[in-house]
Amino acid sequence: MTATAAPQHRFEISREQLATLLGDQPSYRVDQVWKGFYEQFRSVDELTNLSKGLRAELEEQLTDSLELVTASVSENGDTTKFLWRLHDGATIETVLMLYPDRATVCISTQAGCAMACQFCATGQAGFDRHLGVGEVVEQVIKAARVAAEGPTPRRISNIVFMGMGEPLANYDTTWATAQRLHADVGISARHLTISTVGIIPGIRRLAAEPLPVNLAVSLHAANDELRDELVPINKRYPLADLAEALHGYLAVKNRRLSFEWAMIDGVNDRDSDAAELAEYARSLRAHINLIPLNPTPGYPTVGSTMKRVREFRQLLEDFGANATIRQNRGTDIDAACGQLRNVYQRPKDRRIGERIPEATRVAVDLARKRSDSLPE
Ligand code: SF4
Fold it and tell me: How many A from CA of 163 to the centre of ligand 1?
């Protein structure tokens, strides 16, 4: 093996870099290690098809980048939220959602977020830094392992880039992650969804990429006055310009576009909001996901009632747009983006991180205990 100057994160390095690191080992070793990491979700220690000595050398060179601080599992066991600490102390969240026949992972691309959306716990806490590809990919691998080892094992079928941060503000990492998940974990492009608040240069770059991933736009308001307030980046990329960029994406990708709309009582759930939203969505043939808002401590208003959410959905249908009410998962585990992190960043609540394998087992055990009600 060829030792490098400093250890590297094991999901940061490319296959070519792994081959270089393995040096004079036979070439099938690269396959064994790569598949062990990406298809079997194993740690270096668990690569038992390698000699003990080689494992020990690899362990010195390739480190994990995520240390589990805590994992919260919803009462019915279908949602697990992970809070990770990175090597520099920054913290990020990942959410694993189990469905009867599959699983979805929601990943973070930044520690914190600079977009300052008014109603979002992550936005309220500010921006720490961009994540590297290894830190993003590792979130999927660790969640996939929990899903695979749970009481009713699930395969990860969908990845949504909807956790902390604005994916298109960290474009290179986001795209490198999408490629790695597609090529090495085997997630098809139509099961990868990148969300954005509407970073137009990023949408244009995405349109030029070879993989036709899904695009989800966090819209939340369909007139500039309200959107400037709720989603401040709208001042730089207003709705008319955003629509033009989205038309460009659709023209080359031919994928369904979706709009995310967090339902805020008395703010964006009026009849006039439904009319504006329906018109904007119709012109782009976009599907609308209505999200009952999780309460966040720093935002004074509350989510719309479920009665109003249903009425709003009906109004959208009456205006000729397609809309679904998104199941609101994990309100009992601070599952709104950034909430768990905020709780743990209060000094009095801060806990020492556990070793990752132990903590992963804890998450699986919790999921097992709580998953009786989950349909097979
Ligand atoms: S909603 Fe998304 S883009 Fe807006 S502040 Fe929160 S994490 Fe950032």
Answer: 8
